[in-house]
Structures are given as C-alpha cells and as structure tokens.
C-alpha cells in the first residue's frame, strides 16, 4: 500500500528541509550531460576524495543543469552560516582548493564565485539572480534545474511537484482542459498549436485505448533545452504527461527520447521506477479511478521522427515516414487510435499551469504567445546555454544582455533562430520582440528555441549550405520534390561556395525552394529552404562575393574543398 | 551468435512494434546487424524481411557492417559548424587516415558525423562511445590520438 499524496509531500518537505538546513556543508555538483562533457564527473570524484581524505563531513549531491552551460562544470557550496555560493568552470584542482579554502578555512573565495543562491548576502559576491545572465530571465520551467537532485522524486514533490496532478484529479478532465485553454498555452515544439485544442479533440475522439506521447525528439541542430529538462527535472515533464493523459482519457503513454541523450534516458528510467513506487503510475493513481502506464521509446537516429506522424510510425516499428493528414493524431494516431503528442517543454508548462493556475501562467508573454519560453544560446556567444524568458523579449536582449554578445567581443553578423526551418536575421532586425508568430514575417521563426549567434568569421553561404546538407540527409525520401530538391539546392550551394557559382544560381535556388515547399507533405520539406531564403534576403552581398568575385569573405568556404585549407587562396585559385 | 540472438528474442513480444527495440538490442550486443539477425527478427515478429531491412537502413543508428571499438561521432550541428566543426572532422580524418563513414582496417576506429549532439552551448563537440567531449580544438584532437599511439 502506497502512502497518500499528502503524507508523501509532508515527508518529502521534511527531508528537503533537513538536508538543506543541515549543519553539515552541502556541495552541489552539476552533472548533467553538458557538465560531464567538460569534466564534471572528475570534479565530483575530486570532491569525494578530498572530503574522505580529510575526514570532513559534507553532503555531496549531484544536481542537473542550471542552463549556464558556458560555466560548466558548476558547483555550489552551501554552509549553514551563509547562503550557497556558486562557482563556475571548476576543475579537480579547483575542487581541492574549494574544500581547503571554503570548507576548512571558511573563505567563500569571492574572486571565483559566480553568485550566491538563496537568502542573505556574502561580501563581494552578487546574488546569482541579479547577475547579467539571470536578471532578465523568468525561471519557471527551469525553476528546479540545477537545484534539485533529479534522481530523487522527493526533491520534486517537496517543491510542489505533482500537486498539479493532484489538483487535476480533484477538478476533473473538462476543468483541466479549460485551465489549459485559459492559460493560452501553445505547443513549444515549433508549430505553436494550441495545446488545449489537441487535448479536446483527443478527448472527444472515438476509440480506445487512447495514448499520450511525449515528443523528446529535439532534432533541430542548436537545441538542447528538452535534454536539459529531461536530465535535470524529469518529473516536471512526466507530471505534465499524467495530466494530459487524465484530461484526454488515455491509459498508456510513451516518452520518445533520442539514443544520443544517454543520460536523459537513464534519468527517465529512474524517474518512472520512482513514480511507480509512489503510486503515480499504475492503476488507481493517487487513489482515483485514473490509471496510466509509461514506456520509454529510444529514438534510432532520424530527425524526421520529431514530426508527429513520423514519430508514430517509428513507435509502431516502421520507417519514420510522415503520414498524410488528415486524419490528425488526436483522432487517429498510434495504431490508428486517438493520440495526443506534446513536446517536452509543453508538458512541463502544462504541469505548471495545473499547479499554479491559468491566470498566473498568462500573466507573462504577448497577446498570442503566453508564458515563458526556453531558448538555447549557442554559436559564438559568451554565455552559451539554456535560458528562460517571457515571450515578447527582443532578440537583442536575449543575445546581448543575457548571452553577453560574442565571446571575443567581435560584432554579431547574424542570429540564426529556429533550426534549419528557421532563418538568419541581421543585427538591424534584432529589436523585434520574439513570440511564436513575430519572426515569421521576417522570414524566420523561433522553432523549438534554438538561437545560434554568428560572428563575422562564419560564412553565411556556408551556413546555408550546412542547413541544406542537413535537410538532404534527413529527408525521409517520401516526397520527390523534397528528396531531390534539397539535394539540388545543396549541390548549387556547394558550387557557389567553391567558386563555381553562376549568375542565375540565386533564381534557380528560389525556384527550387518554392517547388520543395509546395511539394512536401511535412514540415521538413516545407521549411527546408527557410534558412537559405533568409540568407539570400538579408545577406545578398555575401552571395555576390562568392558568385561574381569568386571569393569567400571569411575563408570558411575553402574548408569545404578537399584540399588543405589555405585562407590566402581565393576560391578560383583552387585548381578545380 | 545464434544463441545470443535467441536470448535477446525471448525478452520481447512477437509484435511488429518490437522491430526497432529488437534491432537496437541486437546491435548493442553484436555491434552491427548481420543479415542472420535481421532474418531472425523478421521471423520472430512476423514482419516481412524486406521491411526489417527497410527499417534498418532508414535510421541513422543502425549499421550493417561491423564498427570499430571506438566509435567517434563528430557533430555537424549549426553551432558546432560555425565554431569550427569542419576543421575538427578534417583533423580526425587526417589522424585516422579514414573519411567520414569509414572504419579503420584494424577495426579500432569508426568515424561518423551526427546532426546534433545537443551540447551546443559548449561547441564544437564530438562523442566517443557515448561520451561527449566539448570545446574541441585541433590541438585536443592531436592530444587525443597521440595518447592512443596514432600519430
């Protein structure tokens, strides 16, 4: 017999308080995938050894990622006498120094600190929430990331986790759909479809059983916020899934997660086992008549499976080829049965809405895009990582104020948003407020939130070529215009980048782009040329330099040739 | 191999939906998908052989030939690309003497590229046997392979 939710919450809060208010120092080490990629596991081990060899008391806790990827590995040290202090770029040597100076000698090392966490102040260290990176952010979806232990369900429950599910079970499915409707939540995966309508359609659809699929495919190059959520706060996503399932009357769910996200897959497995233990999965969840089971589906490496119907084909065990629509998945999805497919971030938002209410959620954002959005900052940017801001903030604020501009202080040449189906905007358009529709008129989109900063060292033509390379590799092959057209555009761009461009190539590209857009069944083909078209629109000089003068302004294009790179060579001098 | 296959198959249900998980399991155990394995999966799930082959050749994860002990994936995502991924790929190709998509004759290394590893905040990155290494430089590549006794 599992304990009641109230009892679980009480116990979780007690444990949380006991640990955080403990007289022993607590060391939090961020060991999500980005941290591990720059040595967080070694840092963790260094702390463990140092504490052991000195016989020091201290709790060593692994946490997820705060989103400050650029400063990984990230470590926070909490001592009873003062607020926690967060340190960035920690190495094993630094870990030993922190134990010596910070734990033994009680010196918070202000010079090395990024900021303090929680109440109180430490001389010489800013509060983390007041630093340039954090101040413009509103961290709702990310509230727990980097602060709770993602493998302990109690940490999530102690911070109001699963109270949204409890509330949903109290008010009933219609009411919860109504809440989602009033919140204005739209899908975070790129298409921006109103979440409540998907749920409503599926609820009203005939057929049983119904399914809920969490789409963690996250294939757009330059996006990693779903990964961060699944690694750092998996229960927030799974709670959203339960609420969706309850709302539409589904009994079974799948979480689709790419195989490359090894840690996320591991965290999901742990989370599901804990949910079962605590009575959040199985029959009669939290004593209600609602039953739900979740299976993890490991992706097999196909971008197209981010498209809903291709995802369904993949789960059914076939080639991930998009289906003709209608019917749409809410009426006929997995095995031909009603299926809701929501993005990871969307589900995390749904859980928050159930916890805090529709009005609270809709307080932020713009008229048509409510709430906050996760953006992934990368490319040549000082503060690369995942951030959360209200819709309506300008790209300039995102890239300059939060991102800190380029890492070497050089001017920004372009900002690429929305992955291959998005577009490239020049600096003059960065003052546009960003929401789910505003960038479309400029020929770009926010897609699933990727923001890649490009400085003058990167070649715009080469970037467009990279984007078409991606499209031609990932095209599923079903629609001929997409399969052949993306390859043709890639070939033309290769010619241009190697000094073989013809005067009418841009017209040819525009014509191909239109053909592919019109002749494709799914979003991949329909948006495959967007990045290309935006670069032709905003950076015509770069194309002219390649086509007419046979020169690449940055020398990046010489790299795409087979020979050794030599920046001094013009493109014609390559003997091709 | 036959016994290992049998053992994997017994853990699954005889349903078409199990084709992909089965291919994944078999590849995890054998390193690639030999013809016999695909035939066994087809018989077990009742899915035509041609369809199993179709699935195995559709998804980037699957391979029909053995791979090297060290499987290197170079990210070609937008962020890595603008931060020098082509140079990293080129450096690795030079060190290993193979091109993208190839395996060294001694089966030590396989080199592939991948659409995005999702570690874009620390680009450029590569992944070796599921371990991501971020902020790659040509120098790091050189160190990496010197350690392994390759040039």
Report on the structure:
The complex is a heterodimer of chains A (576) and B (151). Chain A has 576 residues and is α/β, with parallel strands linked by helices. Chain A is 39% helix and 13% strand. Chain A folds into 4 domains: 20-130, Glutaredoxin (3-Layer(aba) Sandwich); 162-361, 3-Layer(aba) Sandwich (Rossmann fold); 372-455, Roll (Ubiquitin-like (UB roll)), CATH 3.10.20; 460-574, de novo design (two linked rop proteins), CATH 1.20.1440. Chain A has 21 helices and 14 strands. Chain A is globular. Mean pLDDT of chain A is 93; it is low at 559-576. Chain B is α+β, with helices and mostly antiparallel strands and 151 residues long. The chains are: A alpha/beta (576), B alpha+beta (151). Chains A and B meet through helix 2, strand 10, strand 14 and helix 16 of A and helix 2, helix 4, helix 5, helix 6 and strand 4 of B.
- Gap between N and C termini of chain A, in Å? 75 Å
CA-based gyration radius of chain B: 18 Å
CATH fourth-tier homologous superfamily of the largest domain in chain A: NADH-ubiquinone oxidoreductase 51kDa subunit
The CATH class of the largest domain in chain B is identified as Alpha Beta
Mean pLDDT of chain A: 93
| Model regions low in confidence, pLDDT < 50 over at least 5 residues of chain A | 559-576
Q: Please tell me the total number of domains of chain B.
A: 2
Could you say what the CATH architecture of the largest domain in chain B is? 3-Layer(aba) Sandwich
**Strand line-up in the sheet with most strands of chain A:** 2-1-3-4-5
Q: Tell me what the CATH architecture of the largest domain in chain A is.
A: 3-Layer(aba) Sandwich
Strand order, main sheet of chain B: write it out.
2-1-3-4
Give the strand tally of chain A: 14
Number of domains of chain A: 4
List unreliable stretches of 5+ residues of chain B.
none
Q: Which two chains have the most extensive interface, and how many residues on each?
A: A-B, 62 and 48 residues
Number of helices of chain A: 21
**Multimeric state:** heterodimer
**Name of the CATH first level of the largest domain in chain A:** Alpha Beta
- Computed structural class of chain B: alpha+beta
């Amino acid at each position: 017999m599992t304990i009641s939710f109230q009892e679980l919450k009480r116990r979780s809060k007690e444990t949380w308080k006991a640990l955080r208010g403990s007289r022993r120092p607590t060391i939090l080490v961020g060991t999500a995938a980005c941290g591990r990629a720059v040595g967080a596991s070694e840092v963790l081990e260094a702390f463990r050894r140092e504490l052991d060899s000195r016989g020091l008391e201290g709790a060593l806790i692994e946490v997820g990622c705060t989103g400050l990827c650029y400063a990984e590995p990230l470590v926070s040290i909490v001592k009873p006498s003062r607020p926690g202090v967060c340190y960035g770029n920690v190495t094993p040597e630094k870990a030993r120094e922190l134990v010596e100076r910070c734990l033994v000698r009680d010196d918070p090392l202000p010079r090395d600190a990024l900021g303090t966490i929680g109440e109180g102040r430490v001389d010489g260290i800013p509060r983390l929430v007041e630093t340039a990176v954090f101040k413009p952010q509103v961290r709702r979806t990310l509230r727990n990331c980097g602060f709770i232990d993602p493998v302990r369900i109690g940490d999530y429950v102690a911070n109001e986790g699963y109270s949204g599910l409890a509330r949903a079970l109290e008010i009933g499915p219609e009411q919860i759909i109504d809440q989602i409707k009033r919140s204005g939540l739209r899908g975070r995966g790129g298409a921006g479809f109103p979440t409540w309508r998907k749920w409503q359609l599926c609820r009203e659809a005939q057929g049983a059983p119904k399914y809920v699929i969490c789409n963690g495919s996250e294939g757009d190059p330059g996006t990693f916020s779903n990964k961060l959520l699944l690694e750092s706060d998996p229960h927030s996503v799974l709670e959203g899934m339960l609420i969706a399932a309850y709302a539409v009357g589904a009994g079974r769910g799948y979480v689709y997660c790419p195989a490359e996200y090894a840690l996320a897959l591991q965290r999901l497995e742990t989370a599901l086992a804990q949910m079962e233990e605590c009575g959040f999965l199985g029959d009669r969840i939290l004593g209600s008549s609602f039953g739900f089971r979740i299976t993890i589906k490991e992706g097999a490496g196909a971008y197209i499976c981010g498209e809903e119907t291709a995802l369904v084909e993949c789960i059914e065990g076939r080639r991930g080829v998009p289906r003709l629509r209608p019917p749409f998945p809410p009426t006929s999805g997995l095995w031909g049965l009603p299926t809701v497919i929501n993005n990871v971030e969307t589900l995390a938002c749904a859980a928050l809405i159930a916890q805090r209410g529709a009005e609270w959620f809709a307080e932020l954002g713009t008229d048509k895009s409510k709430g906050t959005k996760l953006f992934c900052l990368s490319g040549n940017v000082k503060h690369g990582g995942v951030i959360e801001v209200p819709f309506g903030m300008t790209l300039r604020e995102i890239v300059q104020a939060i991102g800190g501009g380029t890492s070497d202080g050089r001017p920004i040449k372009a900002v690429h948003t929305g992955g291959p189906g998005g577009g490239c905007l020049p600096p003059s358009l960065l003052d546009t407020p960003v929401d789910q529709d505003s960038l479309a008129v400029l020929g770009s989109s926010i897609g699933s939130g990727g923001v890649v900063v490009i400085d003058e060292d990167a070649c715009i033509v080469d970037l467009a070529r990279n984007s078409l390379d991606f499209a031609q590799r990932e095209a599923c092959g079903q629609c001929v215009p997409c399969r052949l057209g993306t390859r043709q555009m890639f070939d033309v761009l290769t010619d241009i980048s190697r000094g073989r461009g013809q005067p009418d190539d841009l017209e040819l590209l525009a014509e191909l782009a239109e053909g592919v857009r019109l002749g494709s069944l799914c979003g991949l083909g329909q948006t495959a040329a967007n990045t290309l078209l935006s670069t032709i629109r905003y950076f015509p000089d770069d194309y002219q330099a390649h086509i007419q003068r046979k020169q690449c302004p940055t020398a990046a294009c010489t790299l795409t040739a087979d020979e050794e790179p030599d920046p001094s060579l013009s493109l014609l001098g390559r003997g091709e | 191999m036959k016994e290992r296959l049998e053992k994997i198959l017994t853990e699954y249900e005889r349903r078409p939906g199990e084709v992909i998980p089965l291919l994944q399991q078999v590849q995890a155990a054998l390193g690639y998908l030999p013809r016999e394995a695909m035939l066994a999966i087809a018989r077990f799930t009742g899915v035509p052989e041609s369809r199993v082959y179709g699935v195995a050749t559709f998804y980037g994860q699957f391979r029909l030939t053995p791979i090297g002990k060290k499987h290197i994936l170079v990210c070609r995502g937008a962020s890595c690309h603008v931060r020098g991924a082509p140079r990293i790929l080129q450096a690795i190709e030079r060190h290993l003497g193979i091109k993208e998509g190839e395996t060294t004759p001694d089966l030590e290394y396989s080199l592939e590229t991948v659409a995005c590893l999702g570690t874009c905040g620390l680009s450029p990155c590569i992944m070796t046997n599921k371990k991501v290494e971020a902020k790659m430089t040509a120098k790091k590549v050189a160190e990496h392979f010197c350690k392994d006794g390759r040039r």
